[in-house]
Automatic annotation (TrEMBL), chains A, B:
Binds 2 Mg(2+) ion per subunit. Its cofactor is Mg(2+). PANTHER family: CROSSOVER JUNCTION ENDODEOXYRIBONUCLEASE RUVC. Mg(2+) 1 binds at residues 7, 141. It comes from the Bacteria. It is found in: Cytoplasm. GO terms for molecular function: crossover junction DNA endonuclease activity; DNA binding; magnesium ion binding. The gene is ruvC. GO terms for biological process: DNA recombination; DNA repair. Homodimer which binds Holliday junction (HJ) DNA. The HJ becomes 2-fold symmetrical on binding to RuvC with unstacked arms; it has a different conformation from HJ DNA in complex with RuvA. In the full resolvosome a probable DNA-RuvA(4)-RuvB(12)-RuvC(2) complex forms which resolves the HJ. This is Crossover junction endodeoxyribonuclease RuvC. One of its GO terms (cellular component) is Holliday junction resolvase complex. The active site is at 7, 68, 141. Coiled coil: none annotated.
Amino acid sequence: MRVLGVDPGLTRCGVGVVEGVAGRPLTMLGVGVVRTPVDAELGHRLVAIEQGIEQWLDEHRPEYVAVERVFSQHNVRTVMGTAQASAVAMLCAARRGIPVALHTPSEVKAAVTGSGRADKAQVGAMVTRLLRLSAPPKPADAADALALAICHIWRAPAQNRLQQAVALHTAKAPKGRTA
Amino acid sequence: MRVLGVDPGLTRCGVGVVEGVAGRPLTMLGVGVVRTPVDAELGHRLVAIEQGIEQWLDEHRPEYVAVERVFSQHNVRTVMGTAQASAVAMLCAARRGIPVALHTPSEVKAAVTGSGRADKAQVGAMVTRLLRLSAPPKPADAADALALAICHIWRAPAQNRLQQAVALHTAKAPKGRTA
């Protein structure tokens, strides 16, 4: 299972590719950041993010794209940019027929550190250990993108079982009734 | 001057094309709504919006695209979808080299009704009058998209003069000093 994790942002969009299955050692295939100039027009920044994500999809051909789910934050200006960058990442994946999964920051932190309230340093340290890297990936956006990909690989079996159960239940339920 | 106005939304994305110049009667060239199913996956909805916007750009070849500037609202879920839909509209325009302008809801209301706090009915009534339509465009998202395009046509001369003044000032300022 090969997953591209995307930590969306207009100025720095973290990207990381991880391959593996739950219960086995994972492999990092690539990590980086798609950057756009702060003083560029918003439309041009979105085009630059699209081009960056497309390059990562072309090079690594992931089977899944995991994007951080954006919530309202203190800084409304930032959250708008994050939502817009995440839209571009989701669009690029969906256009190719690649399934997109959204994970919340606390789901990602809980998956890699055991605590949904872990700080950046703790996430960086666990990503380094789990992928057997020599140093934590920098900037933090790059480490977060890898953590998203790891989270997706580990959560996917449970999610798939859940989806299969729902699908089975829906298929079995008599028509015209709600389950 | 031909402008495509976009009132962004995931479920209903209003689109309207207006042609004209400030101080002369305006002409509506088209109006409609790009819809996506509420129960579809977010990535697929964004792809559907992209396809819809692309069709409007292909058909009408606008010189400008005016998009509503998204702010934080009461409903955080809605504002995220609005930000994501607006990102797709801006991306489609910028990819073609079409300048994108953002106008706030109160700028648009003030432009067409004289009051930044006008209600939907008032905006619809003025759009109908200004474009000499037989009835207000429905749904409200379609009327709002036309109002955005009208707002852009009327505000553009002032904005262009401002940008030219800034550019002139910047060009004249000696290097190494801040103006």
